[in-house]
Amino acid sequence: MEFTEILGLVAGTLTSAASVPQIVKTTKQKKAAGISPFMFIVLLTGNALWVYYGFRRSDIPIIATNVVALALDTTMLALKWKYN
Amino acid sequence: MEFTEILGLVAGTLTSAASVPQIVKTTKQKKAAGISPFMFIVLLTGNALWVYYGFRRSDIPIIATNVVALALDTTMLALKWKYN
Fold first, then answer.
1. Which of A13, A53, A66 to mutate to test the interface with B (most CBs of B within 10 A)?
2. In which band, very low, low, confident or very high, does the pLDDT at B6 lie, cut at 50, 70 and 90?
3. Quick check: helix, strand or coil at residue A58?
4. What gap in Å lies between CA A79 and CA A26, rounded to an integer?
5. Which domains are present in chain B?
């Protein structure tokens, strides 16, 4: 794997990991009042378009990062409905 | 501008826009207790690496999106310190 690809995977891991604390906090506190579902739908749409963009560019780091981000966003939306 | 580039810019606009409500809310409520600065530093690092990745790939949508994201993250961190 070449340097640029590793760089992209590290960048993607960091930007995806940054949303994990919010998910952990929501699960622990069983509270999701402060989270706007509209924001997560915007985020989901954006991440889905990035996955499509990644396929058009055959860019593994973009595809991998945004598939993970999609899963995290979907988890967050599910928590929002569960604890709303 | 070809379709793929437009697709990337739209995706980037959505994923960056998704963090704006949090900034507006923090500014209005003048409260930033619930926000972990560690998360924003992880996000900042990730976005900075994505900018570098974008340059290595000469990928305008990735560069543009992550420069905007960097600005939004920095704003959020500044609000965190101001209203902490």
1. A53
2. very high
3. coil
4. 7
5. 3-83 (1.20.1280.290)
pLDDT at B33 over 80: no
Note the pLDDT of residue B34.
66
Q: Examine the predicted complex and report whether its ipTM is higher than 0.95.
A: no
User: Using one digit for the tens of pLDDT, what is the confidence trace for A68-84?
Assistant: 999 998 898 888 888 87
Task: Name the nearest CA neighbour of A23 among A66, A62, A67, A71.
Answer: A71
Identify which of A56, A64, A60 has the alpha carbon closest to the alpha carbon of residue A1: A60
- If we measure between CA atoms, which residue out of A63, A60, A18 comes closest to residue B11? A63
B29 touches chain A (CB under 8 A): no
**Distance between CA atoms of B84 and A8, rounded to whole angstroms?**
33
Check if the beta carbon of residue A15 is closer than 8 Å to that of residue A65.
Answer: yes
Contact A7 B53 (CB under 8 A): yes
The Cα B26–Cα B32 span in angstroms is 6
Touching check for B40 and chain A: CB below 8 Å? Answer: yes
Tens of pLDDT, residues A58-69: 999 999 999 999
